[in-house]
Design a protein that fits this description.
Length: 632
């Protein structure tokens, strides 16, 4: 079959070049007749040549096709160049020569807004009188007339050809079929604005649509779009020309910061274009269609996992269901995770869970700080009631996929299925540590949200920042930690001016977004009373972290040192008389370890005393006689 296709391609190329030879013979004959002052023969390029195709693509008249043929003849045929020399003495193709051959209509043909120069099929020299300026055929167009097609070298590195889709026909996403249906109407070519959560997923949909239409899809990163207006205009012309010549389409991929540049370029293009962004920017071009790529639902994710894992899926059992329920990954991410789970001898469920976690990090790593968690339940010292709530919270997250998806809660009402929790208590009482313990126990990622990066003075920006964080967190089912949350989630104020009104809008938006988030958002505060009561009502779990009593402090001292740390003569019961939180105890223990290591010698009470004095000074608390008595 391949040999037959090659023969057909060779025959087509031969016909195109024979047609070009015939066309050049015609313009040569017309030039010869012009020199001899004879009647000019007709110019009629054969249907087998590339001229009718270019005429259709760029809407060229017969006279404009003749200008192309003369320019091509000047480069390819010495006889034509010699005939031009007989007409104007220098052998150059100029407007003056064309005026003698074609007539006054040449000035309309060579207008910068007419097709030949608008599409840069013909380039005119900038220096000298207009009538004497040299005209040259663009090399890309010359190659097209010769039957050779390639991506213009000036676009190389900026524009990339999308690979073929591996999705079997009939199994493309529904949105891919919708895009193909929109573009099948040649009388209407709208710009498509494609939104959705992840760039790879949107790209896969576009590639499937292109394959369904049997067209090439070229991809352009909006970050590569020139900022200079002249360069951007030139890029638009060259890209639009390639789309027309190759019967292709363009995919412009943008991020929030490159959205305006992408919209500007899309407005300059007239061919089939898809503008892909999580939240596509507004464009002026009409017609336009906005489509949204929704993340796959639980059942769809199950099917994708089974398809990617093949026979290995049967051995997973319920582990596959938990995997699909926990990680809201798109098809490309699931494919990548499945391909990574090839470690020989390793437990498949564990390997897949780790691979899915890594894929879920892609979007969130750039928005928040990931905390590596190694803490365990043994590191927490809390009253039994608080420990029970935390273990219930861990169970909620562990079984959420079953309750929400298999037991039908998600189908009944998708809102309010998350496990938002408030950890309230004085500084250093273990709030952040508890979040780390939950993340470690559930083998999930923990991200700390920097509120200074989230809250913006510009109206609407805070909501956008929060939306991006929650949407990215959905992929990996991550635990979100909002430290000192009262800074953002405080009581809604009485509206006195526009700033108060929009501050309240931000709080209301957050309340709604937290209800919709199916993972765990942990909010920590030192001042529970500062939080909005409406906000507290929407929290599923509230855990109060008390200041540790003497028995708890003794337990913290006993657990704070790693087993490998050498110790000598430490009396934890006596040390519990220091009225410190768990965070301060850890700080003292660590500093005492450094003091002992300089010896080197085991950690002893005198090291603890020196470190405690520094801690009290840091906290601006007096190291009183009672505290000193601990070390007597």
């Amino acid at each position: 079959m391949t040999a037959g296709m090659n023969r057909n391609a060779d025959m087509a190329l031969t016909l195109i070049r024979e047609g070009l030879d015939t066309t050049l013979s015609q313009v040569n004959a017309r030039l010869t007749a012009l020199v001899a002052d004879e009647a000019l023969p007709e110019f009629d390029p054969p249907e087998t040549s590339a001229f009718p195709v270019l005429a259709h693509v760029f809407h060229l008249s017969v006279l404009e096709q003749e200008v192309l043929a003369l320019a091509a003849g000047h480069d390819l045929d010495d006889g034509i160049a010699a005939a031009m020399a007989q007409v104007n003495g220098n052998g150059a193709l100029t407007p003056a020569l064309l005026e003698r051959l074609i007539g006054a209509a040449i000035w309309d043909i060579l207008c910068p807004e007419a097709p030949l120069r608008r599409w840069r099929l013909i380039e005119m020299a900038e220096a000298g009188p207009v009538r004497a300026r040299t005209l040259r055929l663009d090399e890309r167009i010359l190659q097209a007339l010769l039957g050779t097609h390639y991506l213009d070298a000036r676009l190389d590195g900026l524009v990339r050809l999308c690979p073929a889709s591996t999705t079997p026909p009939g199994q493309e996403p529904e949105l891919a079929r919708a895009i193909a249906a929109i573009w099948r109407d040649p009388t209407r070519m709208p710009l498509i604005q494609l939104g959705g959560r992840t760039r790879p997923s949107r790209r896969q949909v576009v590639i499937c649509a292109a394959q369904r239409l049997s067209v090439q899809m070229f991809r352009l990163n909006a970050a590569d779009i020139p900022t200079d207006w002249t360069q951007r205009q030139a890029l638009a012309v060259l890209l639009d020309r390639e789309l027309a010549l190759l019967g292709a389409a363009a995919l412009i991929e943008a991020e929030p910061e490159t959205g305006p540049a992408a919209a500007t370029l899309a407005d300059l293009l007239s061919g089939p274009v898809i503008l892909s962004a999580e939240d596509p920017p507004d464009v002026d071009r009409t017609p336009r269609v906005r489509l949204e790529l929704d993340p796959p639902e639980f059942a769809e994710r199950q099917d994708i996992w089974r398809q990617q894992l093949g026979p290995r899926a049967e051995a997973l059992g319920p582990a596959l269901d938990r995997l699909a329920g926990q990680f809201a990954l798109d098809p490309p991410a699931i494919e990548a995770a499945a391909s990574l789970a090839t470690e020989p001898g390793a437990d498949l469920a564990t390997t897949l869970w780790r691979a899915a976690r890594e894929q879920g990090r892609r979007a969130l790593d750039g928005l928040a700080e990931r905390i590596e968690s190694r803490a365990t339940w043994d590191d927490l010292v809390l009253p039994p009631s608080q420990m029970a709530v935390l273990r219930d919270l861990a169970g909620h997250l562990r079984d959420a996929w079953r309750v929400n998806n298999q037991w039908g809660w998600a189908a009944r009402n998708p809102r309010g299925l998350g496990a938002a929790a408030l950890f309230a208590g004085p500084s250093g009482t273990g709030k952040t540590l508890a979040a780390e313990v939950l993340a470690g126990a559930l083998k999930l990622d923990l991200y700390r949200i920097d509120l200074s990066q989230v809250v913006s003075k510009y109206i609407g920006e805070t909501e956008k920042n929060l939306s991006r964080i929650f949407a990215a967190a959905e992929d990996g089912g991550a635990i979100l930690l909002f430290d000192e949350a009262d800074a953002l989630f405080g009581k809604r104020s009485e509206v006195k001016d526009s700033h108060d009104r929009y501050a309240n809008v931000e709080v209301s938006y957050l309340l709604q977004r937290m209800e919709a988030y199916r993972g765990l958002a942990v909010l920590t505060t030192n001042q529970k009373s500062a939080l909005d009561t409406a906000f507290l009502r929407r929290l599923r779990y509230v855990v109060n972290f008390p200041f540790p009593d003497a028995a708890a402090r003794a337990e913290i001292w006993a657990r704070v040192f790693p087993p490998e740390t050498p110790r000598e003569g430490l009396d934890f019961s006596t040390l519990s008389r220091l009225g410190l939180s768990g965070g301060s105890i850890r700080s003292i223990a660590l500093n005492a370890s450094y003091l002992a290591a300089s010896g080197p010698e085991p950690v002893q009470m005198h090291h603890i005393k020196r470190a405690a004095q520094r801690e009290y000074s840091k906290l601006e608390k007096p190291f009183s006689t009672n505290e000193q008595g601990v070390f007597a």
